[in-house]
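To the structural biology subgroup,

Please find below the input and predicted structure for Amino acid/amide ABC transporter ATP-binding protein 2, HAAT family, which we are adding to the shared reference set this quarter. The sequence is reproduced verbatim from the submission form. If anyone notices a discrepancy with their own records, reply to this email rather than editing the shared folder directly, so we keep one authoritative version.
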Amino acid sequence: MLQVSGIKVAIDAVEILRGFSLDVPAGKMVGLIGRNGAGKTSLMRSVMGHLAVRGGAIYFDGRDLATVPRHQRAAMGIGYMPEDRGLVPELTVEENILVPVWASKTLDERQRLDFVYSVLPEMKEMRERRALLLSGGQQKLVALGRALAVGTRLLLLDEPFEGVAPALSQRLSEVIGGLRGGELSVLISQSDLNHSSSLLDAEVVIERGANASRE
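Predicted structure (tokenized):
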């Protein structure tokens, strides 16, 4: 479903990704494991088109993403949960969930909301609350709900367990684990495997922007 082939990415002339490669097969969960600063977020931002790829290629279901404008990638079925959540503070929970759906010409708003609320029923209870009034943990759930709203084929989850209380971490694990066995492909970045080792079908280690083998 997702094939990253030897990509090179630089920010302000500093090389961040140095020929990095990974594959996320259809219907599988893959862990992207690396220390802070290893390049995990840069990899996901490259897939979403927020960073320019200077070498190599990224393919989604066989299509070269270099030919797809970044504003069209959500419409392809790619959902992205950034580490910093990236919510619009003044919008409600429901509005934040729907932002990428509004950008898509193919998704049914009510159908996608129903799906998100079936997976995260706690979101329905707080749907009218503005994002700025939520705790950090609640904002993580909203960010996951937003990714689920458009991620019909691929989810990119950047450090979903980082900085959250143990109870919420367990809840996130339950929700993500509940997606197993379907057609959805998932890439989860983490600094370690404490929260998701049982969820993953495979793992890829990134070190200083390049592939590293696990000892």
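Summary notes: Strands lie at 2-11, 14-24, 29-33, 55-60, 63-64, 78-81, 154-158, 185-190, 202-207, 210-212. The longest helix spans residues 136-150.

Regards,
Lab coordination
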